[in-house]
Amino acid sequence: MTLQAIKYDGTQLSILDQLQLPHNLEYIQIRSAEEGWHAIKEMKVRGAPAIAIVAALSLAVELKSLMTHGKLSTSAEEVQLLIREKLHYLTTSRPTAVNLSDAARKLEAHVSTEAKKSDSTGNSVASAFMDAAAKMLTDDLTDNQNIGKYGADWLIQNTAGTGQQEINVLTHCNTGSLATSGYGTALGVIRALHSKKVLGRAYCTETRPYNQGSRLTAFELVHDNIPSTLITDSMAAALLSSKERRVSAIVVGADRVAANGDTANKIGTYGLAVLARHHGLKFLVAAPRTTIDLQTKSGEDIIIEERPAAEVTRIKGAREGYEGNDSIATIRVAAPGIDVWNPAFDVTPSALIDGIITEVGVVERGADGSFDFERIFQN
Ligand code: MRU
Questions:
Q1: Is 255 designated active site?
Q2: Is 344's C-beta closer than 6 angstroms to any atom of ligand 1?
Q3: In this structure, which of 135, 150, 197, 291 has its CB flanked by the most CB atoms within 10 Å?
Q4: Are residues 331 and 337 in contact, defined by beta-carbon separation less than 8 angstroms?
């Protein structure tokens, strides 16, 4: 059983508080869109698919509660307006991952169709929203399992030339069960390789400054008994050039893939793509189609979130010998007064990407060097 970041039963929503991982496994309840917004902003939940799902479900539980307490308007139009306003508010929590605004746009359209029906009521509009939000949770899991399957098959075919029996993969940030409704995207590919018994070892980077790799991915890999090794970000070049460790590919997730294939993902991804090209290794992006943003022409148009300086100047961890909440401490690691730049993401140019693994197959660059996503949006 993989870790479950999001628990939803139609009435209640709780999320695994990722700020406390890997030290404490504590679920916190989310009762409204406002609580959902704060959980996303403060990164209690993070990862492109997970933030979209939690945003939608946070509004679903708020609507359910209004309904139960007889406080929901009977007017379809008023409920539609309420949903629209709350969705717009939720999209202001984090700007880079497109999954959140994509989900808001689709949910808004779905609700609008329901509200237009001649017999629609406040309750029917809210129910249409809640059903669509719940479906996001189940669809994401299926999508990830398919991403895993396509990615593993692609790697088996395309790294065979290295003459290796087992495939060693490097990944960055956290793209697993904690960043999705389950299984994961890039980590899903690693999981699928492991199930097929062809994974040698998964290497994960620490992923400074927020340490999604050492805190979250390492935790998931150990939890799921996947052979794995943690490195600091600065060790990636040495790892890729190591003849003993023989890494064949880098697989990462994405927060937004532009129409030309330029990909925004966790800061440090671009550097890894440059390293992969230098070493002649495959560099793959694993992401559901909801992460591909055809409205954004290229990486230049992607808004990169900048986060507080304290995430760079301080580090959070557990004090040895202490238990539970008491163990968690934050310490300063940088000289007081230093100026800090903390972009949370960078953009990898499409030319450095060998393939984009989606739930309907792997998109490779065509003969002209460009990605053509039209095909995968036709079904
Ligand atoms: O800042 P985060 O932790 O939300 O960033 C997450 C990433 O960059 C992931 O690689 C991306 O969202 C894909 S998660 C399946």
A1: yes
A2: yes
A3: 291
A4: no
Residue given tokens 């189940």 in the structure block: 138
Spatial contact of 312 and 342, defined as CB atoms under 8 Å apart: yes
Q: 320: helix, coil or strand?
A: coil
69: how many CB neighbours lie within 10 A of its CB?
A: 8
C-alpha span between 60 and 79 (Å, rounded): 12
What would the pLDDT profile of 233-265 be if each residue is shown by its tens digit? 999 999 999 999 999 999 999 999 999 999 999
Candidates 17, 102, 143, 255; catalytic one:
255
Q: What is the dihedral of CA 194, 175, 341, 305, to 10 degrees?
A: 160
Mutation to probe ligand 1, out of 175, 217, 285 (largest number of atoms < 8 A from CB): 175
- Does the CB atom of residue 103 touch ligand 1 within 6 A? no
> Rounded to the nearest whole angstrom, what is the distance from the C-alpha of residue 123 to the centroid of ligand 1?
35
- Per residue in 8-32, pLDDT (tens digit) is 999 999 999 999 999 999 999 999 9
Q: For 199, how many CA atoms within 13 A lie in the half-sphere containing its CB? A: 24
Question: CA 226, CA 218: separation in Å to the nearest integer?
Answer: 10
State the Cα–Cα distance between residues 212 and 132, nearest whole angstrom.
29
Residue with tokens 């669509």: 132
Residue 323's SS3 state is coil
- pTM tops 0.85, yes or no: yes
Q: Is 323 left (phi over 0), alpha (psi -120 to 50) or beta?
A: beta
Nearest-Å Rg of the Cα atoms of the chain is 21
Using 50, 70 and 90 to split pLDDT, how confident is the model at 320? Answer: confident
| Cα–Cα distance list, 39 to 26, 167, 339 (Å) | 14, 37, 27
Gap between the Cα atoms of 219 and 275, Å rounded: 26
Domains of the chain: 6-140 (1.20.120.420), 152-306+341-376 (3.40.50.10470)
Q: Classify the phi-psi angles of 47: left when phi > 0, otherwise alpha if psi is within -120 to 50, otherwise beta.
A: left
